[in-house]
Amino acid sequence: MEHGLWLEGYDADRSHAAAEAFCIRVSQPLAHIPFHQHRKGQLILALHGGVTCEVEHAMWMVPPQYAVWIPGDMPHSNRATASAELCFLFIEPGVVSMPDRCCTLKIEPLVRELILALASRRRTGGNAANAERLVGLLFDELPRQPEEQLQLPVSGHPKLREMVHYMEHHADAPRTLAQWGTILAMSERNLARLIVRETGMSYRRWRQQLQLIQALHLMLGGQNVQQAAQALGYDSTTAFITMFKKALGQTPARYLDALQHDAPRR
Fold first, then answer.
1. What SS3 state is found at 53?
2. How many angstroms separate the CA atoms of 105 and 102, rounded?
3. HSE of 100, CA atoms in CB hemisphere, 13 A
4. Boundaries of each HTH araC/xylS-type domain copy (predicted)?
5. What is the enclosing helix (H) or strand (E) of 196?
């Protein structure tokens, strides 16, 4: 496990290996890497803690045992929770069939262990033929990983960008659609239509999806359920738990317990 802020100075694009992996422990709270891009495709796997990835028109949350896939040449930024442990897999263009868009993938234990083994070989070296077989098996399994809906559509429309910026930085003071209409000098009906047209979601669904991403980030960073509910402006912890369970099918406690239960023992 390598330490530091996202392994400063490392340039994956200098290598032409079909796949290359390394793992890090983020040493700075909420470590943030601004927008950048790679020639190679990149898979960011969260082992412990979590990471939020933003591309031009969407935000993705990556809890433990999930990964975000970022196609090559796509600008993106990353923000990790305190003491997160992450594994990066860089893939040479065209060597394996992967989505041409960003997506969150639920990573099966076999694929996770293959990525970890590849990262270990990078540190210790080893037989090239064995490494090639490892990559071949990884490429057989990786395209089969199921997608999960842990993203927030983020439109480039200036009014919606203003809304997202406020909701990110003032999560404890949510605004109604009517309040936003007054602030943005739009009727509530026209603003509702704009949000659906730009994001494919109603305002309530869109706001709750951002709250879900924020909730995961807060709790994976060490806050408890009550603290997360307060940080997101909920009047009661029960209302927050209801929202979370409706979105992910489990209470926050059960969801986080399941993530930790599936975490690798290392």
1. strand
2. 10
3. 1
4. 161-258
5. helix 188-199
